[in-house]
Amino acid sequence: MNKNYLKKISLVTAIFVAAIIFSFGSNAEAATKDLTGWAWSSNIGWIKLHGANGVKVDDQNGNLSGWAWSSNIGWIKFTPTPFYPCPGNSGCQPNVNLSTGAVTGWIRACSATVAKNCDGSLSSSWDGWIKLSGTNHTSPNMAGTGGVTYDTNTGKFKGYAWGSDIVGWVSFNTGDDSVVIPPENNGPSCNISAQVIAGGDSIQNDVRLTWTITNDPGQQYSIARNNMAFGIEPFLSGTDIDTDRTPGPYSYTMTRLNGGGATCTSNTVTVSPPTGGATAALWLGNSRATREVTIEPDDFVNVRWDVSEFFTENPNLVCNTIQPEGPNIPAWLNNPASTQTGTQIVRDLEEDIYTLGMTCTQSGVPAATRNTNNVTIIVDDGELEEI
Question: CA 358 to CA 282: how far, in whole Å?
Answer without folding.
Answer: 8
